[in-house]
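User: structure tokens for cysteine synthase, please.
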Amino acid sequence: MNKTLIDQIGNTPIVKSIALNTNPNVSLYFKLEGNNPGGSVKDRAAYNMIKSALDSKRIDANSKLIEATSGNTGIALAMICSVFKLNIELVMPETATKERVQTMRAYGAKVTLHPDGIEGARDYATHKVENEGYFSFNQFANNDNWKAHYKTTGPEIWRDTEGTITHFVSSMGTTGTIMGTSTFLKEQNADIKIVGVQPTDGSKIPGIRKWPLEYLPKIFDASKVDQTIEVSKDEAVEMTRRLAKDEGILAGMSSGGATAAALKLVKDLKSGIVVCIICDRGDRYLSSDLFE
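Assistant: Done. Predicted tokens:
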């Protein structure tokens, strides 16, 4: 009975699609990362990055921490920093939903909103690291990001599908989830297909990115992704709403995008066990027009 909040990160449920998947020869499963205590898949990476930095004495209680985030990583970092009594400044695009900003501040983090999107937020954080003595976890280049999923997400999926998974589908943002999960699953069975999800040109989907070359996450290794499926913002929005109405799963737009891609994949398969990451909960988007 000595479990702490940290012990509740991971071991999220996998549930079978009961409505959206209409291919009788394929089973589609959703891994519900919104069941993490901070409400998203990013709890895993945030904890692993913070714990590793503390253990290696790169940071301590006096460190000035800063991180650029589009939302979920910031919430996860704020939550875990509150547990470890660390101070952190989180830099977000000023378009971030009110719930995300308020949640980070509730955990005690300082939140700075930047007018130039996530790229501007990243540049702001980099400047503070280089000029003002701040420490950044730099999720885009931090191997402890993807290793969190190598240690937890991948093994859970392998265990819960009893080694029968044939395809893994994940949105690609910082790419930590897909890199770590791919690395583990491919070690178990090299034939498992790893499918990454990107936005179509011109589509802005929070949590799914097609990065300009100079901002491409350093942890990304294209050889670990077998196939990329593109989805539009309209497809992501429609599928997010259908997830809630048809499957009872309230999630964010990146999860809708991943589900739209998974259904495109499933439609053409003759057989298979497909697992799709539902990366967060939808309640942090209720002030937006996502569910209107």
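User: Anything notable?

Assistant: The chain has a mean pLDDT of 96.
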